[in-house]
């Protein structure tokens, strides 16, 4: 930070001068005060307590800082608004047993100020950074209960629900002055599970409600951050606070400009690295656009794009409803239609929601809102349930990534399809010129190709000049289409490769570089000139994957970024060649290990567990956390790639679909594509897919990972049971260990196995509604407190009549003569 350079210089000279003194003391006891110039170090040498002067100030304060970090960082200050003007101050135990800061004339500048029935107090600095005052009655006071501007791992301070005392973090006035500044941070006193930052008492930022895994109003949270973070069990403890435990050195600090920063100590470079900070964009500022309006950040960071919600119009003070809600008017009157809901996606949900505990699903939630005249909107949130809004809708931020669906109540008149009233006339007026334009463009395109063919040489020159230094082409029509799609500038980075560059990298697709045969064509290993290894998926011309699937895959995967999803580096679409370039996965795919007699053993129990968990997180990202919300539709062992550390990465998005509509609703398709053994009943039989069909495939994967057997080919030698039925049998007999792959049976933990199989069986329930969501799966796998319901016996299994044992990778595409495609569609 650089703010403490002076302090550091001072301390450095100090420690250099007084090394023995600073080591001698470890606690403050009655009768031996800590004087200026002497410090206390925690037993493990992590934190240090003593007098310091911040920034350019010469005032002296008692503070706690990291003992041996080169960049000195103060995490707590005692007498923050009552400094000692010179070096005559001391920290001591007063006659009543309290910890006090005294100036040179023994006046009390600061006191821990607790009632102590017994004397004999001692103060000790712990390795967590906590200064604890003990006496015979136990811990009488601790600095962790009186935070300043820094949250340290292990702190348990927040809103005390019994006394209504809210312990707030307060910023420093400036880097030179630790006195309480204009900003404070803490739990929302109205007991919604949100964190707020206030500036001069007014809300400046809010985290959004906690949904059990994340704060929903924080965009782009890192998985490390999500999974390292917890909310207290406030119903039991009576205190609502947030906490995390971490082995790395981290802290949150509320800066004097009102920004909450999460910083991680880099022990190799000796600097604090910021890993998270809010609010940093315009729309993260509380209610930036006012009530009834939504805020979208602009690319260049200038004023955000504020617009009234649908059905609201600008008025003098803000946005107001155009048409009054129907509620309260007499429904039986002619022409009064009930209100309807307008869906908004990917939002930071507005503030002031009420939890409607009576509604257990989205349709009940909708009904409950409709029946309540003061309800303006609702949202059904996984992990929380039904939220309804009775007050005005403030602080709405449209996220680029993630966010929740929100249903805004509007008068039925807002839904009148204006297009239908304008009728055929407009359609004709618009479509005829458009068609003509398209024909013209097509003609131009054809001629351009001809002209190109005539002047082949010049064109190639152009191509050369457009290439980057390693043969990377920088412009094609397809790329600009993708650029539009991927959201300008903010999208992940990928490059467009030329055929020549790919040929060079893969040695002309030499057979020695062949990695395997994917669903739609061969996959080759390649090496870029700068030494990066790549995997090239070459779509064969006769394959089922046409331009549509290709575009689908590029667009989808280019927008997705998660450590459990394979990363697309670029693509190549020239002439008839279509290729996708991925990061190279040295360990190929899961099936290579899982179903191979000799390699199975490499995946020991804990590796398998972490693979299951990784896939679940990747899937959760697809289903819920990515803005797009994606159903993969072809989850299977060969689509799970493994990196050098055996971390799983979901790949192959050729079949994936975006589901923009309501949660979990099923969509029908006429093209049933997927892989034998992984398809859910409703999908295979009726072409219905939803997130729950992915959950089914994931359930099959879990069972395969535990047993090391392929669901599609497995048949118990004696019992003539398929894999799912066999798992069911053993699970019911409380004998799941028998189900575990024999090669790793001794490394596994019986209760983990039981949980995995339980979750697996629950995921492969016949009825989609009885399967858990991905979020629930993760909570269960992590051993959370979620009660696992007993699954029913899964009965769905493919008929085995056709002897399809070796068709494990066969894709069923409609038009094939295979049975279930005939049933597709609704
Ligand atoms: C701090 O000191 C301890 C004990 O001497 C040492 O183990 C640790 O690596 C030091 N940390 C830093 C960041 O220098
Ligand atoms: C204070 O501590 C000392 C040493 O532990 C002990 O001898 C003494 O009895 C204690 N006094 C009281 C009042 O507890
Ligand atoms: C704190 O707020 C007051 C009143 O708005 C303002 O005058 C002062 O400059 C602010 N201080 C800082 C450090 O921002
Ligand atoms: C932190 O350390 C504890 C014990 O030292 C260990 O059990 C735990 O796995 C570690 N956690 C992380 C995230 O490394
Ligand atoms: C730095 O951190 C890494 C990972 O936490 C640890 O393995 C390493 O020992 C640390 N190095 C020092 C010098 O503390
Ligand atoms: C930022 O972008 C907006 C539109 O997106 C534009 O109106 C504005 O002029 C831009 N501002 C700057 C400083 O570039
Ligand atoms: C938001 O809309 C509601 C309903 O129309 C209205 O009562 C309220 O005044 C509006 N708020 C603002 C700030 O315009
Ligand atoms: C609604 O209208 C019906 C018939 O016009 C009338 O009988 C009924 O009392 C009205 N209800 C209310 C609440 O006004
Ligand atoms: C929602 O719950 C109600 C009552 O439990 C039930 O009747 C209804 O079918 C459920 N709706 C859906 C879509 O699951
Ligand atoms: C109607 O909604 C308001 C606002 O959320 C809430 O306070 C009230 O309890 C609800 N009334 C009923 C009957 O549910």
UniProtKB/TrEMBL annotation:
The keyword Nucleus does not apply. This is Receptor-like serine/threonine-protein kinase. GO terms for biological process: recognition of pollen; response to other organism. Pfam families: B_lectin, PAN_2, PK_Tyr_Ser-Thr, S_locus_glycop. It catalyses: L-threonyl-[protein] + ATP = O-phospho-L-threonyl-[protein] + ADP + H(+); L-seryl-[protein] + ATP = O-phospho-L-seryl-[protein] + ADP + H(+). GO terms for molecular function: ATP binding; protein serine/threonine kinase activity. Residues 509-796 form the Protein kinase domain. Its EC number is 2.7.11.1. Keywords: ATP-binding, Cell membrane, Disulfide bond, EGF-like domain, Glycoprotein, Kinase, Membrane, Nucleotide-binding, Serine/threonine-protein kinase, Signal, Transferase, Transmembrane, Transmembrane helix. GO terms for cellular component: plasma membrane. It is an enzyme of class 2 (transferase). It is a single-pass type I membrane protein. The chain crosses the membrane at residues 422-445. Belongs to the protein kinase superfamily. Ser/Thr protein kinase family. The gene is B120.
